[in-house]
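Technical note accompanying the year-one report. For the benefit of new consortium partners, we illustrate the data format agreed upon in the data management plan: each record pairs a sequence with a structure-token string. No post-processing was applied to the example shown here.
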Amino acid sequence: MSRDALIVGINNYQYEGLKYLPSPAEDAEAIASILEQHGQFNTIRRLPEAIKNLDSTTKSPYISQKGEVSLKQLKDSLVKLFKPETNQIPDTALFYFSGHGIRKTSGITEGFLCTSDVHPDREFNGLSLKWLRELLQESPIKKQIIWLDCCHSGEFLNFSEANPQEVGKGRDRCFIAASREFEEALLDINSKYSVLTKLILEGLEPDQYNEKSITTLSLSNYINEQIKQIKGNLQHPIFTNLGEPIPLTYGQKIAAENPETTETSDICPYKGLRYFELEDHHWFFGRETLTKTLLGKISQKNFLAVLGASGSGKSSVIRAGVLYQLKQGLTLQGSADWEIKIMVPGNQPMFTIAQQFLEPDLSRIQRSHQLETAESLLEKGSDGLKRLIETTDAPKVLLIIDQFEEIFAPDTDKAERERFIDCLLGAVEKCNGKLKVMIAMRADFFGKCVEETYSGLSQQIEENLVSVTPMKEKELLRAITKPAKLVNLPIEPLLIKEILKDIENSPGSLPLLQDALREFWKQRDHQGLTLANYTKLGRVAGSLNKRATDVYQSLTIAQQLTAKHIFLNLTQLGEGTEDTRRRFLKTDLVTENHDQASIDAMVQLLADEKLIVTDRTQQGDEVIDVAHEALIRHWELLQQWLDESRQQLQEQRKIESLAQEWRDRGYKNEYLLQGRRLKECRQKQQYLTLSTRASEFLEKSAKHQLMSRVQAVGLFFIIPLMGTYLGLREIQLNADTKLLENCPEKQEYCPGRREALQRLVKASKSLAYFDLDNANLYKANLTNANLYKANLEDANLYKANLYKANLNNALLNNANLRYANLNNALLNNANLRYAKVTNANLRYAKVTNA
């Protein structure tokens, strides 16, 4: 590996308009010295060079404070450095310059590095930065490093005709400039070096920071952090790092890197089913090339589509790869100042995008007002989104839409889908480069994009596409071994070979791999990860299926029913595509058969087992999601449930979606159902398991429809209409009675029982002798109910309101009556054997012979 450097520090200038500079020669010599000491450079050339005689036989070059450098000298030296006339091309070339820099604005603004012989009045300005950039682009050297410490050096990164953000040429580049193009570089008053050079020298010292080596990226990061701490923030170095980090200096290996002296860490280096987040970047390996490609594309384009198979790692590379690099601002100049919004559209994408423009930490009232304003603007389409983008002071806004396929879900309104796409693409065109949009979508959903015109979406995707292909073997090797090395976790070589063989030609295998590695880590021994444990746990393909099934089988029967209910609701049924994940509000999981307490307990258990994840919306509502779609595809038991329940689930989802829209729109009456749609939904309610909110939605719809009709026909028709209502009500009550009579014992298979029971009680219908064995009547309102001799064995009456209920001679053995209101209830001769009555209100209750 050959490494050459050219170090230039010019103090002296012939032109009277350029004053003498005291620090460049010292700055440059200090840089040359540290590179000689720690950088393993083969050749370091200095300009202007002087020779110091150390003794009669040893001579040492140094940078002269009195010497001068001509334009010809500098050009010839740069050509020799970056385009050497030799068959042995250096691997790395570094150019450092300290001195004056000037800008010329006659016609075209251009920057120059000043050599000693410049004379701006005669249009002899020095080394053109444009010329330098063209030289770098033609250079065969793969690793190029340029550091400029001079006034107006920021001009170097300001030429669009020679953009350094090249992609696909195999180059690694690092540019660091002392200031933005409109600033002058400063001297550190507490040091003999300039501000930038002082920070470079500090950052290049590997032993001081216990680093094995300093790279261009770690140096940029160090300078960026240190400059923030300088009071007044008078100088703003700028950075561009392209490609892989380039080693700069090398130090001694620290003890922690020797596995013989360090115990295996208790930190698991693998993510499991969850995608990598921004803060997981230090565990994220294998997608460096893809990250570099995406950064290069997003720097040049305002729309980018990232497509790949489910499980190919789209979400991870966007967050731990692209998002991390953009936030650092070290790879793409200025990206640290961008406003980046990342969203998942859900089935109401316009509502979701409006939420992205709400300020944090608002009261509910303030949030409601801001949301109303944002929604009002978005009703104007792309013009409204453009106005929202213009409200930010950030130079650019990057809107990342992950899981873009969700807009094609069956419960997403087609008109809203079209508005959303038109709004996005139109705003990208109208914002003059301030808005950038990146979408990530499952590749199998591209067919949905061509079914309609969608404002030219399919064409935009085809023209701005980056495909997330399966990892190559070397990339997979990094993803497996690099995190393990960070925690000194040994991996048996045969195990690595078997894992690579198992996931070969499996495009969606990454979450399975991460989950399997996490499980193997839990079973590690003093030998680390071994082939024996790998085989025992079912290898990559079987590990997740085995783990999920083991968790399910460890539950009680009641818990299993709740777990099944949760996983079915977290699955979006595909139409011509595979089933996908479906985020769901935890409160909407509560139904007649699954009360809040059982849902809370099961969500916590499944989250602890890493099978589901929880989050909160901006409104503070808890949202549940499967840990990854791989669970839906590879858990055989869940696949069986879906096959058995698909038709009923599709019907249920339609009603739940309508109820969700009603809720999201502030429970407004115009979103309630009427007429034929209401009638059909009410009929389906008798056999579907609906959430409490969906049931409430249908009840409100029925009442609103009745009141609307009453108001419409006027008082003259009230009596006949009420007769019609009473007739309809009688039909409903008869249906409720029939439902209760035909209810099987197992509560899961009797949806709608509690609502039916409450309607009958409210209508003063007798429930004497009814068989309600095992009924889930959690919080049921049974005030004044006639339950004489009713069978309520094993019934769940937790927190039920049984005020003044007639329970004489009722069978209540093993019933759960905890916290139930039995005030003034009749319990004479009731069988309460083994009944749970802790904290029940039995005030004035009649319990003779009970």
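Partners are asked to follow this layout when depositing records. The chain has four domains: 3-253, 287-468, 555-690, 714-850.
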